[in-house]
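Q: What does the predicted 3D structure of 3-oxoacyl-[acyl-carrier-protein] reductase FabG look like?
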Amino acid sequence: MSAPFPAERTVILTGAGSPRGIGRATAFHLAEAGWNVGLIDVDAAAAEATAAEVAAAHGVRAVGIGADVADRTAAVAAVDTLEAELPRLVALVAFAGVSSPVPYLDVDADEWRRVVSINLEGTHWVTQRVARSLVGHGVGRIVGVSSVSAQRGGGTYSKTPYSAAKAGIVGLIRSVARELGPHGVTANVISPGPIDTDIMGGTLSEERKAAMAADGVLTRIGTPRDVAAAAAYLISADAGFVTGQTLNVDGGLYMH
């Protein structure tokens, strides 16, 4: 049995500074549901500004901090700071990531290292640090963010290094789910399809949105709110019997 959810609870979100990003949208969505929010982004000013806006909009406590999650020392220090300034840490949603449109035969060592370190290692370092606290409390929720690109072998804006790193997140989180389940901690993955954010290579035209949607079952691409709603469920008290799963939010692009 896991410990009960505290009434005053905090979620940490990484990669939450981009103005049109999924992390920012999720911060507002979770704050509206009563979560206090800790934000980590490589852009410290953006993280701080988003936290101030979230707190003002929803009356929760919110703190933003700058850190490169691929740097273990920086990632751990950022979580330390947020945990000290906010109510009980209960959940993590690790959005921080970078795209990579480089064709496979052109991928050099620097590009491979950049993409894998931020997407996969960054998720690991923050997850491990947060997990230490969640295990100590006897209850918690961890959500990693993969991509339909990992499941389909690319076929999106980003190519091989991105797909490999995002596939690694699925293996990482499943293993975390298995190890930490006895301690009351669940761990799941969200796998988005095409979402209308700037990580897709800039603001999308209506024509490009339509082309992306054509592969799926639905007639549109996703919005940050679609992913935020999935995160809200997976970190909720009601999702306590869901762990080791990958929830696709992709308009039916990949059915499994």
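A (community wiki): The structure tokens above were generated from the sequence. The mean pLDDT is 93. The domain at 10-249 is CATH 3.40.50.720 (Rossmann fold).
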